[in-house]
Amino acid sequence: MAEDTENQNPETPEDETPSDEAAEQQPSAEASEEPTLEEQLALALEERDQQTDRALRAQAELENVRKRLLREADMMRQYAVAPLAAELLPLMDNLQRAIAAGERTGNIEELLQGLQMVSKSFEETLGKFGVEKIPAVNEPFDPNKHEALQQVPSPDHEPMQVLQEVETGWQMHDRVIRPSKVIVSSAPPA
Q1: Higher pLDDT, 186 or 47
Q2: Domain spans of the chain?
Q3: What kind of fold does domain 130-190 have according to CATH?
Q4: pTM above threshold 0.70
Q5: What DSSP line would sit under 144-157, residue for residue?
Q6: Confidence class for position 82, pLDDT limits 50, 70, 90
Q7: CA angle at residue 68 from 67 to 73, to 5 degrees?
């Protein structure tokens, strides 16, 4: 048994020695694989330069998109009324025909009839774009839709009721484009 113990003891130091050497060799191998501080700095600087380049490109792209959107918005504003103009041009043609017919014939009734047709077509065309007359006569006065030019005492009407429309008001959907200019009733004097 003493021999077994001696055999084990010499083996144990021999086992430890190679593992100690292996342990010493591994850190040196890892140290050679790990980049030096200069290499790490160079990698970090390269990555920084790449990120800076990406950021500058993204910023330039964003600026280009902003400029393009502004150009497109300007073009839309510039040509926004083109569909309305296209619809109004035939009305202008009809108006000129009515005037020419009235001049040729000298018949005021035909001229008046032609102008009434043009006026009706004009109103229908505006209606296609959501533009409509504001109701006024015999309506209660609404300061959001009507502009009172005068008040007239009237025993036949409620106070603040529209008696007469001097100038037609127009609205687009729920927004007033031009208020109606009206004459409004007031209470009769006492």
Answers
A1: 47
A2: 130-190
A3: Nucleotide Exchange Factor Grpe; Chain A, domain 2 (2.30.22)
A4: no
A5: TTEEEEEEEE-TTS
A6: confident
A7: 100
